[in-house]
Design brief:
CATH class: Alpha Beta
Order of helices and strands: HEHHEEHEHEEEEE
Number of domains: 1
Strand content: 15-25%
CATH architecture: 3-Layer(aba) Sandwich
CATH topology: Rossmann fold
Largest sheet: 9 strands, mixed
Distance between the termini: 40 Å
Number of strands: 9
Amino acid sequence: MNLKELEKQTRVILLDVLERSAIKKGQVFVLGLSSSEVAGGIIGKNSSLEIGETIVKTILDELSPRGIHLAVQGCEHLNRALVVEHQVAEDKNLEIVSVIPNLHAGGSGQVAAFKLMTDPVEVEEVVAHAGLDIGDTSIGMHVKRVQVPLIPVQRELGGAHVTALASRPKLIGGARATYSTDAIRKN
Protein backbone atom coordinates (compact mmCIF):
# COMPACT_ATOMS: atom_id res chain seq x y z
CA MET A 1 0.00 0.00 0.00
CA ASN A 2 1.26 3.46 -0.93
CA LEU A 3 1.35 5.31 2.41
CA LYS A 4 1.65 8.78 0.80
CA GLU A 5 -1.52 8.13 -1.19
CA LEU A 6 -3.21 6.78 1.94
CA GLU A 7 -2.29 9.98 3.81
CA LYS A 8 -3.62 12.13 0.97
CA GLN A 9 -6.92 10.23 0.74
CA THR A 10 -7.36 10.23 4.53
CA ARG A 11 -6.91 14.01 4.60
CA VAL A 12 -9.47 14.53 1.79
CA ILE A 13 -12.06 12.39 3.58
CA LEU A 14 -11.39 13.96 6.98
CA LEU A 15 -11.56 17.56 5.77
CA ASP A 16 -14.86 16.82 4.04
CA VAL A 17 -16.33 15.30 7.22
CA LEU A 18 -15.01 18.09 9.45
CA GLU A 19 -16.54 20.76 7.26
CA ARG A 20 -19.93 19.10 6.97
CA SER A 21 -20.18 17.90 10.58
CA ALA A 22 -19.98 21.43 12.07
CA ILE A 23 -17.71 20.10 14.84
CA LYS A 24 -16.19 22.84 16.97
CA LYS A 25 -13.08 23.53 19.01
CA GLY A 26 -13.12 21.60 22.29
CA GLN A 27 -15.38 18.84 20.99
CA VAL A 28 -14.47 15.16 20.52
CA PHE A 29 -14.04 13.41 17.17
CA VAL A 30 -14.06 9.60 17.29
CA LEU A 31 -12.13 7.37 14.88
CA GLY A 32 -12.92 3.74 14.28
CA LEU A 33 -10.26 2.06 12.15
CA SER A 34 -9.68 -1.38 10.71
CA SER A 35 -6.25 -1.33 9.09
CA SER A 36 -6.98 -4.90 7.98
CA GLU A 37 -9.87 -3.64 5.87
CA VAL A 38 -7.81 -0.73 4.50
CA ALA A 39 -5.18 -3.29 3.42
CA GLY A 40 -7.89 -5.29 1.63
CA GLY A 41 -8.28 -8.00 4.27
CA ILE A 42 -10.91 -8.96 6.81
CA ILE A 43 -11.40 -6.85 9.94
CA GLY A 44 -9.12 -8.02 12.76
CA LYS A 45 -7.06 -10.42 10.62
CA ASN A 46 -4.28 -8.34 8.94
CA SER A 47 -3.59 -5.40 11.27
CA SER A 48 -0.92 -3.02 9.99
CA LEU A 49 1.02 -0.66 12.25
CA GLU A 50 2.13 1.41 9.24
CA ILE A 51 -1.45 1.96 8.06
CA GLY A 52 -2.62 2.78 11.60
CA GLU A 53 0.17 5.29 12.13
CA THR A 54 -0.37 6.95 8.75
CA ILE A 55 -4.10 7.43 9.31
CA VAL A 56 -3.90 8.50 12.98
CA LYS A 57 -1.02 10.92 12.35
CA THR A 58 -2.87 12.50 9.42
CA ILE A 59 -6.00 12.96 11.53
CA LEU A 60 -4.10 14.33 14.53
CA ASP A 61 -2.27 16.76 12.23
CA GLU A 62 -5.63 18.18 11.12
CA LEU A 63 -7.53 18.07 14.42
CA SER A 64 -4.87 19.43 16.77
CA PRO A 65 -4.57 22.92 15.22
CA ARG A 66 -8.38 23.16 15.29
CA GLY A 67 -8.52 22.31 19.00
CA ILE A 68 -10.65 19.21 18.31
CA HIS A 69 -9.90 16.18 20.48
CA LEU A 70 -9.34 12.74 18.94
CA ALA A 71 -10.68 9.55 20.52
CA VAL A 72 -9.55 6.32 18.83
CA GLN A 73 -11.92 3.42 19.34
CA GLY A 74 -10.53 -0.03 20.02
CA CYS A 75 -11.89 -3.37 18.94
CA GLU A 76 -14.35 -5.56 20.80
CA HIS A 77 -11.47 -7.27 22.66
CA LEU A 78 -11.16 -4.02 24.66
CA ASN A 79 -14.94 -3.50 24.80
CA ARG A 80 -14.54 -0.66 22.27
CA ALA A 81 -12.73 1.52 24.81
CA LEU A 82 -11.01 4.60 23.39
CA VAL A 83 -7.60 6.24 23.52
CA VAL A 84 -7.65 9.97 24.35
CA GLU A 85 -5.20 12.44 25.81
CA HIS A 86 -5.10 12.23 29.62
CA GLN A 87 -6.08 15.90 29.93
CA VAL A 88 -9.18 15.29 27.79
CA ALA A 89 -10.17 12.43 30.09
CA GLU A 90 -9.74 14.68 33.11
CA ASP A 91 -11.49 17.71 31.59
CA LYS A 92 -14.47 15.69 30.39
CA ASN A 93 -14.64 13.47 33.49
CA LEU A 94 -14.16 10.27 31.47
CA GLU A 95 -13.69 6.92 33.18
CA ILE A 96 -10.06 5.87 32.71
CA VAL A 97 -9.54 2.10 32.42
CA SER A 98 -6.35 0.09 32.82
CA VAL A 99 -5.14 -1.44 29.58
CA ILE A 100 -2.43 -0.79 27.04
CA PRO A 101 -3.57 -1.66 23.52
CA ASN A 102 -1.66 -3.95 21.22
CA LEU A 103 -2.06 -4.89 17.60
CA HIS A 104 -4.57 -7.69 18.32
CA ALA A 105 -6.36 -6.15 21.32
CA GLY A 106 -7.17 -2.56 20.54
CA GLY A 107 -5.77 -2.50 17.02
CA SER A 108 -3.35 -0.48 14.95
CA GLY A 109 -5.21 2.82 15.41
CA GLN A 110 -4.98 2.58 19.19
CA VAL A 111 -1.34 1.50 19.11
CA ALA A 112 -0.63 4.48 16.84
CA ALA A 113 -2.54 6.84 19.16
CA PHE A 114 -0.51 5.62 22.15
CA LYS A 115 2.65 6.35 20.18
CA LEU A 116 1.61 9.72 18.72
CA MET A 117 -0.36 11.35 21.55
CA THR A 118 1.42 13.28 24.30
CA ASP A 119 -0.09 11.53 27.34
CA PRO A 120 -2.54 8.86 26.15
CA VAL A 121 -4.96 6.93 28.34
CA GLU A 122 -7.68 4.44 27.63
CA VAL A 123 -11.25 5.44 28.60
CA GLU A 124 -14.40 3.39 28.78
CA GLU A 125 -16.58 5.65 26.63
CA VAL A 126 -16.96 9.12 25.17
CA VAL A 127 -19.77 11.21 23.78
CA ALA A 128 -18.29 12.53 20.55
CA HIS A 129 -19.85 15.16 18.33
CA ALA A 130 -18.73 13.52 15.08
CA GLY A 131 -16.64 10.66 13.85
CA LEU A 132 -15.15 8.69 11.02
CA ASP A 133 -15.56 4.93 10.63
CA ILE A 134 -12.97 3.30 8.39
CA GLY A 135 -13.72 -0.37 7.86
CA ASP A 136 -17.18 -0.77 9.43
CA THR A 137 -16.01 -0.67 13.07
CA SER A 138 -19.35 0.65 14.41
CA ILE A 139 -18.57 3.99 16.08
CA GLY A 140 -22.21 4.91 16.70
CA MET A 141 -22.10 3.97 20.38
CA HIS A 142 -19.66 6.84 20.92
CA VAL A 143 -21.43 9.63 18.97
CA LYS A 144 -24.03 11.71 20.78
CA ARG A 145 -27.67 11.69 19.79
CA VAL A 146 -29.12 12.77 17.39
CA GLN A 147 -26.76 11.13 14.92
CA VAL A 148 -26.72 12.34 11.34
CA PRO A 149 -25.07 10.04 8.78
CA LEU A 150 -22.64 11.78 6.44
CA ILE A 151 -21.66 10.21 3.14
CA PRO A 152 -17.97 11.05 2.74
CA VAL A 153 -16.69 12.53 -0.49
CA GLN A 154 -14.74 9.28 -0.88
CA ARG A 155 -16.52 6.12 0.29
CA GLU A 156 -13.50 3.83 0.34
CA LEU A 157 -10.01 4.09 1.77
CA GLY A 158 -7.89 1.31 0.36
CA GLY A 159 -10.17 -1.70 0.66
CA ALA A 160 -12.18 -0.28 3.57
CA HIS A 161 -15.72 1.04 3.43
CA VAL A 162 -15.87 4.55 4.95
CA THR A 163 -18.82 6.12 6.75
CA ALA A 164 -19.15 9.13 9.02
CA LEU A 165 -21.48 10.51 11.65
CA ALA A 166 -22.23 13.99 12.89
CA SER A 167 -24.68 14.96 15.60
CA ARG A 168 -27.20 17.70 16.17
CA PRO A 169 -29.36 18.78 19.10
CA LYS A 170 -32.71 17.01 19.49
CA LEU A 171 -35.72 18.78 18.01
CA ILE A 172 -38.36 19.15 20.70
CA GLY A 173 -41.69 20.95 20.94
CA GLY A 174 -43.73 19.46 18.13
CA ALA A 175 -45.83 21.23 15.50
CA ARG A 176 -45.93 24.62 17.27
CA ALA A 177 -42.16 24.84 17.75
CA THR A 178 -39.74 26.86 15.66
CA TYR A 179 -36.22 25.61 15.07
CA SER A 180 -32.91 27.27 14.23
CA THR A 181 -31.05 26.42 11.05
CA ASP A 182 -29.47 22.95 11.07
CA ALA A 183 -25.71 23.56 10.79
CA ILE A 184 -25.16 20.09 9.31
CA ARG A 185 -27.92 19.95 6.70
CA LYS A 186 -28.00 23.75 6.22
CA ASN A 187 -31.79 23.97 6.47
